[in-house]
Amino acid sequence: MSRIIAGRAGGLPLRSVPGTGTRPTTDRTKEAMFSWLSSRGWLDGTAVADLYAGSGSLGLEAWSRGAASVLFVEKDRRAASVCSANVRAVAQALRSPVPQVIVRPVDAVLDQLIAAGHPAEAATGPAGPWDLILADPPYPVEGEELHATLERVVRALVTDGLLVLERSARSAEPSWPAGLEPVEQRTYGETSVFYCQRVG
């Protein structure tokens, strides 16, 4: 069973999505990822989006460790139901309002944000733009499809905002769109994590 590793809700168990339709981030990878983020100040008071959220494990870890707001996006209804249950459990543990879980495709949510004309300098919040985006798209999403999503992500980040992208360690490095610059790549077992910053 997955759990919140650290922070105000540290140790709280999380429900997992049944079946093989989702690929949960291992606790080892999550711990390494959040150690990287914590040491660089990416969690305190930030606005976060957890895209392809699955059980919500990544966004909830960010929330437990000090993020000011988190939005969860998951198109699969069964996974979104598990995510919602986990979000409510963590909200209760933190005695905080329950964050929003949007049951829609990621690209549709990003397109809606872009169409609303939110400038990157706007105040951050659950509706975006965001300081930090955590994205763990299905591994078959690659090539031009992934590139098109990353182009949307650039416009959904504040200037100097950060994207954390999970991929298979066996996959080729994504084609990065203009405005998104890789800062570092780390490999944790079978998972490669790219830390990328919005520039310009």
Automatic annotation (TrEMBL):
GO terms for molecular function: methyltransferase activity; nucleic acid binding. GO terms for biological process: rRNA methylation. Coiled coil: none annotated. The keyword Transferase applies. InterPro entries: DNA_methylase_N6_adenine_CS (IPR002052), RNA_MeTrfase_RsmD (IPR004398), SAM-dependent_MTases_sf (IPR029063). CDD domains: AdoMet_MTases (cd02440). This is 16S rRNA (Guanine966-N2)-methyltransferase. It comes from Micrococcus terreus.
